[in-house]
Design a protein that fits this description.
Layout (H helix, E strand, L loop, with lengths): L10 E4 L8 E4 L5 E2 L4 E10 L2 E7 L8 E2 L2 E3 L6 H13 L3 E12 L4 E10 L10 E7 L12 H16 L5 E4 L11
Parallel strand pairs: 4-9, 8-11
Antiparallel strand pairs: 1-2, 2-3, 4-5, 4-7, 5-6, 5-10, 8-9
Amino acid sequence: MKFCNQCGNPVTRMIPAGDNRMRHVCGHCATVHYENPRIVAGCLPVWRDQVLLCRRAIEPRRGYWTLPAGFMENGETIEQAAARETLEEACARVRDLSLYTLFDLPHISQVYMMFRAELVDLDFAVGEESLEVRLFTESEIPWSELAFPTIGRTLECFFADRRQNLFPVRNEPLEALRTHYTPR
């Protein structure tokens, strides 16, 4: 950030009085510009014993498989964001969304919030950000082709929890991103 979005004057990096972090501060109007983590909302869409995955058509990790997810927009709830991303990426409608996994990724300033959800029907298709969309059983999951560790961890938890039919909400920090997901 080089200029204040309130008055247009240059900003400098400094620790404002009463704060403990470097911030962009406008020397003219004294506006402190906070930078906060971005929220990624998504779904783990389920149909019977299968889950719906999308092959990414965009970077990062183009060509790798993911659950439908993306950045939350202003003016929507987390649940609305997760359902919207599922519709955009997989043209799929979901119901009975239930918060399932929360992952803190401080190294990239993101928080992932994934919902378990039931597919309304099998009327899904490739969306703008997907190359392919398909249902997978647990044994068919392309573990070495998953786009992000958050996706692999969500799937790993889901299949383990499904065996016990108990789905607690999980909150875990994830270390720096690895290239491929390795089940624990």
